[in-house]
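Revision sheet: structure tokens.
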Amino acid sequence: MRDLWKQWLVNLGWSQSLLLGTLDILFVLALTYMILVIISERRTLWMVRGFIVLMLASAISYRFGLPLLNFVLEKLVIGCAVAMAVALQSEFRRFLEQLGRGEFKQLFQPASLTIPKSDSVIDEIVEAVKELSKNRIGALLILETTGPIDERDFSVPGVKLNADVSKELIQTIFQPKTLLHDGATLIRGSRIVSSGIILPLSGRTASRQLGTRHRAAMGITERVENCICVVVSEETGSISLAERGTLNRPLTIRKLKESLETRLSPTVDREAVAPGLLSLGRQIGDKGLALVSRLLGLPSAASRDKK
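Predicted:
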């Protein structure tokens, strides 16, 4: 009876260790999934994957008793975490706000893509910009790319319009005698959401040839990554495109259309960056098994299948 009791205690301890290890892995998977959801952009996914690889390498070095390597990797993880927090400050701010409001369900819901439905929307925008540039009428358009912009990133939200995109409406908005011509106009998909938006200005040192519209375009694209801005200069009629705080100018109409089609066309391959939790766990498990097999010199599953 005493032996059975000891054996039960030993099995209980082993089961508890297995349960805690499983919960640890599940929590890491959930945290990884939330990070992928708040990023929601393919171009920064590789940076997140690199950060995850560093964390896994740090954990493995600790497990195998490599103190010096573990020390270096821990410092790298901390430095990369700070760098990511700076580079993705708007996404992390939204994450912390949702966490503070208790919106846990939204943390696991990827942002829906709001890409223009057809090329006609791009054609309407390009034609409007062409006429505005020809007549030297200043304009500032904000185009969402991979998700909706939080209006709290604007200095002043502007006036709601909720109208279909058309070259006539865009030209009318930016006529000098209208009340909304001084601000920016937000376009979401195939709809003009609002106009008269006041944007935060960029803090970067810019050329004296750049006016307030150009600095505002640089400022909002520095702050929000899921948007681009089209600027028409009131003085020269030149066309510029702002993305991630960088201003590309001057652009021809043809170059502008090509740039918009590249960034907004629904035919562009936009791979989902937040897979399902089961799929994510399966992928991480396969990679982990492959890594362990290489370390121990065992044949991988792929090589066994070939045999």
